[in-house]
Design brief:
hydrolase; Jelly Rolls; single chain; alpha+beta; Acyl esterase; 2 domains; about 20% helix; AB_hydrolase_fold; about 30% strand; 15 helices; about 575 residues; Rossmann fold; six-stranded mixed beta sheet; Xaa-Pro_dipept_C
């Protein structure tokens, strides 16, 4: 192996071993770089693997961290602070998954679901690194988002030298990664195509699993069927992807698979997590509800030593990613260096509560005892702890008409509000929005967002809920305040019929301070710009409804449209 190149990074000498070739069991070679102190002393290694390209990750040495809404923010620089990793006494190994960057082989489908298991490749890479003279055989992993998902896939394979992982902001339920409540989310498009602040996947040999699986005739028929969806056919990018699938093969696969099932469940990290027996630390921030949901589900699946840290809003970290490193190095100091620093004496769960801005700790999620209570939507845009007494003949429904975004830039929003809270009121957990609604089309989107509105007019997003109307079926896991939808088929809505739609409100933790109000907003499209969306990359919105729809929301004595929310016990409620 050639001698490393030594560079100066902010006054620190770093030895760089570039373009290491790592053999996989099927003969394919993956490419990786290793960063370490110049001395020959073997050290623990932290491995970061993704499809985004190791050369992009190297910019962490020269690009100051950027925060949204900086135009320099690149969502794919996620492997961590190289200089600090080296300075803390680790070897930082950053590599390319097969079919991407400088690695060989091909990637078939999303996360290579049609080819060699990425967990298998990661097993081989980990064991190869452990055998190198610059590694002492103790391996952990590092990285946010895509890199976090790879950690779970690796740990599920149980490589002997992988001693612990620290996962930040990973993606776990792969259906929920792209379809929130059955509504397509565009953020994965950005990660794959390199749009809206993301460099995207470093494609070299990335292929569509749908193209591999179906004959040209079968595929053409499936594409034409998908183009019958008026939402899809109204969106230029999706028409382009479906007509020219070789252009964006991974995104094509996702667009073509609108229902949950085998396509997404195969190698689902949450399912595979039952195989994980090493220590796992999970970290996620509020404001990205579906990933909070996934981290909690993963935490509850794991059987070995584990921690869950739910951090504060806002939802998007710096790029290059540099946050959470203090906690991560304490974790690895304990598990990779054998230093008893007390981290395992601390509670397993830590949750930052917005509003009160306190950290609540416990052994489980949720960290406090809760009781679900209903807050009812009432006439005159009010929310109350008491249901409406008037019947539908007197309490006329609220309504809004939404024209497609092809003909308007205006997103219509219905809102309801509590009176100001008279005492601090804490809510922690998942929730539900029960909407009795009538629409005049076979389908629409329901997007519910809850806000904490302060007396000075400022506000902060608390949680969100999404549901495509044709995906309204509930499954057997559903309990009060904790609904689940199978998303395995579409059941068109009978226009003009009042139906109950139950939206899952993603997990959150917030204290409403005296004088603050809880505001619920309902729309069928993503608001184009507001206080929350300004913090997100430009492509972090959902597929708009491509047809004109009239919505009527009933909240009367016969139709108890309501929010079901997790109040911690022993606290006051809204007046």
């Amino acid at each position: 192996m050639p001698d490393p190149t030594v560079l100066d990074a902010g006054g620190q000498k770093i030895a760089v071993r570039k373009d290491l070739r790592v053999p996989m069991r099927d003969g394919v070679e993956l490419a990786a770089d290793a960063y370490s102190r110049p001395s020959d002393e073997p050290r623990p290694a932290l491995i970061a693997m993704s499809a985004y390209g190791k050369e992009l990750q190297a910019l962490a040495l020269t690009l100051p961290p950027q925060r949204r809404p900086s135009p320099m923010w690149d969502g794919c620089i996620e492997a961590g602070d190289i200089a600090r990793v080296v300075g803390e006494g680790y070897v930082h190994v950053i590599g390319d998954m097969r079919g991407t960057g400088y690695s060989g082989g091909e990637m078939i489908g999303n996360y290579n679901f049609g080819g060699v298991s990425q967990g298998q490749d990661l097993y081989d890479l980990i064991e190869w690194v452990a055998a190198q003279p610059w590694c002492d055989g103790n391996i952990g992993m590092i990285g946010i988002s895509y890199f976090g998902s790879m950690q779970v896939l690796a740990a599920a394979e149980r490589p002997p030298h992988l001693k612990a992982i620290f996962v930040s902001g990973g993606h776990f339920d792969f259906y929920e990664t792209t379809y929130h409540g059955g509504i397509m989310w565009f953020m994965p498009r950005a990660a794959r195509e390199g749009r809206g602040g993301d460099s995207g996947i470093a494609h070299t040999d990335v292929k569509s699993r749908m193209i591999e699986r179906h004959s040209p005739e079968e595929l053409a028929a499936l594409v034409e069927q998908r183009l019958q969806d008026p939402d899809v056919v109204a969106w230029p990018n999706l028409v382009h992807v479906l007509k020219y699938p070789k252009n964006r093969e991974m995104w094509f696969d996702i667009v073509m698979n609108e229902f949950d099932g085998e396509w997404y469940e195969e190698r689902n990290p949450i399912t595979l997590a039952e195989n994980i027996d090493i220590p796992v630390h999970l970290q996620i921030d509020q404001g990205r509800g579906w990933t909070v949901d996934g981290h909690i589900e993963l935490f509850e699946t794991l059987k070995g030593p584990k921690k869950l840290d739910i951090g504060s809003y806002p939802p998007m970290r710096s790029r290059p990613w540099v946050e959470e490193h203090d906690r991560m190095f304490r974790w690895y100091e304990y598990w990779l260096k054998g230093i008893d620093n007390g981290i395992m004496d601390e509670p397993a769960v830590q949750v930052f509560v917005e509003g009160s801005r306190e950290a609540v700790t416990a052994a489980q999620w949720p960290p406090r005892e809760i009781e679900y209570r209903s807050l009812y939507l009432r006439p005159r845009h009010k929310i109350s702890a008491e249901p409406e007494l008037m019947g539908p003949e007197h309490a006329a429904p609220d309504g809004f008409f939404q024209a497609p975004l092809t003909v308007t830039d205006t997103v219509q929003i219905l809102s309801w509000s509590t009176a100001p809270f008279d005492e601090a009121t804490e809510l922690i957990g998942t929730g539900a929005a029960h909407l009795f609604a009538e629409i005049d089309q076979p389908d629409t989107n329901f997007i519910m967002r809850l806000w904490d509105a302060a007396p000075d007019g400022s506000r902060q997003l608390i949680t969100t809920g999404f549901l495509k109307a044709s995906h309204r079926e509930l499954d057997a896991r559903t309990t009060e305040g904790n609904p689940y939808h199978p998303h395995t088929r579409a059941v068109p809505v009978e226009p003009g019929r009042v139906e109950e739609y139950v939206l899952r409100l993603y997990p959150f933790a917030s204290t409403f301070l005296p004088g603050h109000r809880l505001v619920a907003e309902l729309s069928n499209n993503e608001p184009l710009a507001d206080a929350h969306n300004a913090l997100l990359p430009p492509d972090a919105f959902h597929l708009p409804v491509g047809r004109p729809v009239t919505h009527k929301i009933y909240r009367d004595a016969l139709h108890h449209s309501r929010l079901v929310l997790p109040f911690t016990t022993g606290r006051a409620t809204a007046t």
